[in-house]
Amino acid sequence: MLDLERQVVIDVLPDRKAKTLASWLQEHPGIEFISRDRSSAYSKAIRTAAPAAVQIADRFHLKQNLRTATEKYLRRNYPKIKAILKPPAEPKPTSEVKKAEEIKVGKPLTPAQIRKSRLELAGMPPTPPALPVREQKKEATQAARMELYQQIRTLHRQGFKQYQITHELDIDAGTVSQYLKNAPQPRVYSPGASKLDPYKAYLKQRFFVEGCRNAVQLGGEIRTQGYSGGNSIVTQYVASLRAELANHSPTESSIKSLAEFKLNQSKSKVATPRQISWWLCLPGERLKPWEQAQLQLLCEADAEIARAYGLSQQFSELIGSKNADSLVLWLWAVEEEPISEYASLGWGIASDRAAVEAGISLRWNQGQTEGGQVNRLKTIKRQMYNRAKFDLLRARVLYAA
């Protein structure tokens, strides 16, 4: 609990329950403005214990709500987005002709081709290639999540309450609540960072543009620039560049400069739903050129994505404009052609409309809370880990310098 005028912590409560906050407010009457996040428990406690106080929904949390809704929408439509941003490669038209010519001239077949031919003659479909280990693990994880989802839904249909399902399956209450609302979606993983990532653009410039193909020499050059990884990573990466060169992609003539190459490299990757959600919510001038290009491609290819982009931009501008009168226009726009995720966001805002309008128009917000005091609280908690209870934590937060 902070005094926003004096910018000091005035109390620390043991939990986030409405009853706890209501008791504290009853002991401290006369508060005129209360800035809070979007918690319904806080809203209920303030209405009960301090009905005369003006509730102010924090702008940071409003933007966070927008980005969360946008990311949910993008995850639901991610297969369609991937198809737009990176369509499947077309098969080479000459491959079948080449195979026919090889058989025609009597070129010896490989053992794999012989096995495939025998299966085709026997009327049996060829064995599909095994998935990579990582993909197999992802599929197994999703199958386990779907099995748990079916168990939760079955118990719920049989009349079990949420807390009973929690005890019956020995799982977290949040998981039960989440799975009762929506089925688990396959998770989208992005590759982890590598020590070589900052130097890949330089290596491609040297390899494709300047013609240096020696992995040892290239590794020595990037070490002088600060690279601290192993030699095998460099060797493997240079080998992948040789494979690209052998497949004529990219051609040396298509790479005119390092800047152009970086742009092509960025375009070759399909961004994750989390990354694309920032594209929809941020102002266009804050996006990189390749991000603007891919966002434009998405909006031109799909009308619903274009509408989601428009709703996200309107809400972001509304929060920054400090003009609460435009909120009702945005709520009407959400109702015209509802997208489920934005409709849910609109319903939550409409039910908390007075606080949202106050958050847009008034100067009070939780910047000092989220930016400074929360970080300080977490630091003190980590210093006290497994050593003390809440009473000492409260005393340190209130009185420690």
Automatic annotation (TrEMBL):
Protein's organism: Candidatus Chlorohelix allophototropha
UniProt-recorded name of the protein: Transposase
Coiled-coil segments on the chain, per record: none
InterPro entries noted in UniProt: HTH_IS21_transposase_type, Transpos_ISL3, Transposase_DDE
Residue intervals of the HTH IS21-type domain: 147-207
